[in-house]
Write a structure and sequence with these properties.
Layout: H1 2-19, E1 24-28, E2 32-34, E3 39-45, E4 50-53, E5 60-75, E6 78-91, E7 95-99, E8 103-106, E9 109-112, E10 116-121, H2 133-140, E11 141-147, E12 151-153, E13 158-166, E14 171-179, E15 186-191, E16 198-202, E17 205-219, E18 223-227, E19 231-243, E20 249-259, E21 263-268, E22 284-292, E23 296-297, E24 303-313, E25 329-331, E26 335-343, E27 346-359, E28 363-367, E29 371-376, E30 381-386, E31 390-394, H3 443-464, H4 469-490, H5 495-514, H6 523-532, H7 537-552, H8 560-580
Helix pairs in contact: 4-5, 5-7, 5-8, 6-7, 7-8
Length: 583
């Protein structure tokens, strides 16, 4: 009887502790889903906590969330509490994806959820409900890789344009690349697209379309070469059957992942029949010229001889034939230069090697003709061009002791060693001593003697007027901001380097004004701190928008105009914030 009483007493005492046990767990809508489906994930706790920290969601994009819901239920005098953070996720790749642990601080203790594994499979067929926004989006949005040619020769250009088709009744609001194609076995160059909306027939229906990305490819080997697909994550505004108070149609936002599919290009090898010995891979339609800056000069003077190829073709992908010169013409390594413009139709322009030649002796010296061969894919034949022979007439200078023969057309040059060829240089000199005035007692002596005293006085004067360490640090950081902005402006030719420099400038500016460390940065905290400092909401939004553009630029190509606009916006945001900051 005594033992029964003790058990009942312990149960009454320990029951509140049992009921107060913290429960922090994760729930998912499904463990397997298609690449075109969404995942709902919930983090639930039975007690209020602080500093909820979700996992990174690597492999997913957050379509919505976090949304919070709180439940307080009282039943028979007992209360139960529940708080849930909900996210909607869109998978970005197929395969097994692990969602890490979420953490929260409850009563000074850190609680964690267990990791969960999600298996992402191929796209699943959506229900064909004409009123379902997801079905409307799947039928109204398409991504196609259009090739200018299906069969080319090695080093013949082909253009691939990724066209994003969408029906006029839907409106794309945001487009982000997921998988950028890698052009293995190709030399490639992206051509900037204005991304203007145009109209075109697609599958027997008139669609709006945007040339999202366009690239010129030069295949580097023969065979069936695959072109990797481009995948995009598109946010669409899809119409519903509902109307607002004014009778306007209500739209709902749908997220959809689309891919252009893999394409294959047939690349033909060069024909062996009639292939010149000196052919080095030039493909296109070219002209060839060898010329000299002067045809008459004196010994020890210099002239420039240039080898130039002009036209349309793979100008950046082959080397120019080498010039051979007589041994009496000293030849320096050529200086390479190019003026090549790459468009959707391929490369066009000129490349050239400029040789500097210095004759050593009198006489007439021929530069033998140079032969250049290329393959014309339109005519499907090889063509060979030959330059004219150049004669260099050296009028004045030393005469060679022995006749100088022309070197063979191998590109190697030997400079002769002839005794007496430098006899015109003076070999006798006369030297005179230079008188130096005494150092002690001179003006320089007294200047060096008084200089340390003057420098010491200047040091104490400057030190007395030096501001405190905080002001020095602030000025230093302000100079650092200017440095990064200047660096960003210099890097406008390369989008990636530009946006890295611009984002660094914005972050350093905030560190200088708010006196916070890099680890404290988050967009929500930035907005709160800037508002507390008296910065207007429009200015804060402008600043956050530039930071967002810097982040998005890592995954999407940017044009020169957009980089200039982001730079000007960053300057305007910093200028306005300086005026609005509370002292």
């Amino acid at each position: 009887m005594r033992q029964l009483f003790i058990c009942c007493f312990l149960a009454m005492v320990l029951s509140p502790v049992a009921f107060a046990q913290v429960d922090f767990k994760v729930q998912i809508s499904k463990s397997e889903l298609g690449i075109n489906e969404r995942l709902r994930i919930e983090f639930t706790m039975n007690k209020e906590g602080d500093n909820f920290n979700p996992p990174s969601f690597d492999g997913f994009r957050i379509a919505a969330g976090p949304s919070q819901s709180v439940s307080n239920i009282y039943v028979n005098g007992k209360s139960s509490f529940s708080k849930t953070y909900t996210y909607l996720l869109i998978p970005l790749k197929k395969g097994k994806i692990t969602i890490g642990q979420a953490t929260i601080d409850i009563d000074g203790s850190i609680y964690k959820t267990i990791p969960v594994d999600i298996q992402v499979k191929d796209a699943v067929e959506l229900p064909k409900n004409p009123n379902d926004p997801n079905y409307i989006a799947s039928e109204s949005l398409h991504l196609v890789a259009a090739l200018s040619k299906s069969k080319v020769y090695i080093n013949e250009p082909v253009t691939v344009i990724y066209k994003l088709y969408f029906d006029s009744k839907v409106r794309p609001s945001d487009v982000n690349p997921i998988d950028m194609p890698e052009y293995n076995d190709f030399w490639s160059q992206d051509i900037p697209s204005r991304r203007t909306i145009e109209r075109e027939m697609f599958k027997g229906k008139l669609y709006n379309y945007v040339a999202w990305q366009q690239t010129v490819l030069y295949p580097q080997r023969a065979g069936k070469l695959p072109i990797a697909p481009l995948s995009l994550d598109v946010q669409l505004d899809v119409p519903t059957n509902r109307r607002d108070f004014f009778g306007n149609q209500v739209y709902t936002q749908v997220s959809r992942t689309i891919t252009a599919g893999k394409r294959t290009l047939t690349v033909l090898p060069f024909p062996e029949a009639g292939k010149p010995i000196n052919f080095n891979g030039a493909v296109g339609d070219f002209s060839f010229e060898v010329k000299a800056s002067k045809d008459a000069l004196n010994a020890s003077e210099s002239l420039q001889a240039t080898v130039v190829v002009r036209g349309k073709g793979n100008l950046k992908l082959f080397s120019l034939p080498e010039m051979a010169t007589p041994s009496a013409l000293e030849r320096y390594d050529p200086e390479y230069s190019e003026q090549v413009n790459t468009t959707l139709s391929g490369m066009r322009g000129s490349i050239k090697n400029t040789y500097t030649l210095v004759p050593q002796f009198q006489g007439k010296y021929p530069i033998p003709p140079i032969v250049f061969s290329y393959f014309d894919p339109q005519a499907k034949t090889y063509k060979t061009l030959e330059s004219t022979e150049l004669i260099i007439d050296v009028l004045e200078g030393p005469k060679a002791a022995t006749p100088v023969a022309s070197a063979p057309n191998t590109g190697t040059v030997a400079v002769p060693n002839v005794a007496g060829s430098f006899q015109f240089i003076a070999q006798q000199t006369s030297f005179k001593p230079i008188k130096q005035p005494p150092f002690f007692g001179s003006t320089l002596f007294f200047a060096l003697l008084t200089l340390p005293v003057i420098l010491l006085l200047l040091y104490f004067i400057i030190r007395s007027q030096t501001p405190d360490a905080t002001a020095i640090a602030r000025r230093h950081k302000a100079r650092l901001v200017k440095k990064f902005l200047g660096k960003a402006k210099k890097n406008m030719s390369e989008a990636s380097a530009f946006y890295v420099s611009l984002e660094a400038a914005l972050h350093n500016y905030l560190k200088a004004r708010l006196q916070i460390q890099t680890s404290d940065f988050s967009k929500e905290k930035m907005q709160t701190l800037l508002s507390d400092k008296g910065v207007e909401k429009d200015t804060v939004a402008l600043f956050i928008q530039v930071l967002t553009n810097c982040e998005l630029a890592r995954y999407a190509p940017s044009s020169r105009s957009s980089m200039e606009q982001d730079y000007e916006t960053a300057v305007a945001a910093i200028t306005q914030m300086d005026k609005q900051f509370k002292s």
